[in-house]
Amino acid sequence: MFYDMSIDNLWFGWIMWVLIIGLIFVIIWTNTREKNKYIAFDQKEETAIDILKKRYAKGELTKEQFDQMKKDLNS
Length: 75
Prior knowledge:
Layout: H1 7-43, H2 48-58, H3 63-74
């Protein structure tokens, strides 16, 4: 049993291996990137002061209410 060892068959083999390795790399890179995105998002926890500032910015609190709540939180 002899195999046809022409140049075309050798190039096809190399191209297939490059594609397979490239596909594995893309799958690993995509999965790693997605996990890091969620980890970075979860690490930022909102503090009470942050929530208070947002409520003041939305107009839910007056200046006096904001100052009093901020003072209460800092003490």
